[in-house]
Write a structure and sequence with these properties.
The protein is mainly alpha-helical. It has one domain. Helix 1 packs parallel to helix 3 and helix 6 runs antiparallel to helix 7. The chain is globular, with a radius of gyration of 17 Å. Keywords: Membrane, Transmembrane, Transmembrane helix.
């Protein structure tokens, strides 16, 4: 559930019809702000809200651009820009030594394991996979946008795969790491 909550603004943006991209960006912003507020009320620190905070910034900028010029060239590349932004946020979190998945994992893991090397290493690997998936998705979506297919069924499938593949990897990798830790 934590990953769904983390990526909920992006899901909302993805389901709003492309012709109303400015409303999709605004909806993404509102959902991101709501998720941050809800998580902060439960005591979650901003260090565990890296993706959510980056999402709010992205959607604020995208909404401003989209409402200022609904026919902006950015529209054709908005899905590619979304995935590129996710890759950037995830990559920067790795470079900063705070993989974004660490904050998500801490929500369901006892505090005594948070600083253990295997726990941190698992999250570095998972965040690396998410970063690569987002970057590959951004590249594929940019190529589709360049070919005039940026909002096609193919683009939708690519975008969905950009979330499903790393999610499946995460579930399997965590299960494997937990099984190894029990041995």
């Amino acid at each position: 559930m934590s990953y769904v909550r983390t990526f909920l603004p992006w899901i909302v943006f993805a389901v709003v019809p492309s012709a109303q991209w400015q409303w999709g960006a605004l909806a993404g912003l509102l959902v991101a702000v709501a998720v941050i507020a809800q998580q902060r009320r439960t005591g979650v620190g901003f260090d565990a809200l890296i993706m959510e905070t980056g999402s709010a910034v992205f959607f604020a900028v995208l909404a401003a651009v989209a409402f200022a010029d609904p026919h902006s060239a950015a529209h054709a590349y908005s899905t590619a820009l979304s995935s590129a932004t996710l890759a950037l946020i995830a990559g920067v979190s790795l470079l900063a030594g705070k993989p974004f998945t660490l904050g998500i994992a801490k929500r369901t893991t006892p505090p005594e394991v948070w600083n253990l090397k295997p726990f941190v290493r698992v999250n570095v690997v998972i965040t690396t996979v998410w970063t690569a998936a987002f970057a590959a998705t951004a590249g594929a979506l940019a190529a589709l946008a360049h070919a005039g297919q940026g909002h096609s069924a193919t683009a939708t499938l690519v975008q969905a795969a950009g979330f499903v593949v790393p999610m499946v990897f995460t579930l399997r990798y965590v299960a494997t790491a937990q099984a190894r830790a029990r041995v």
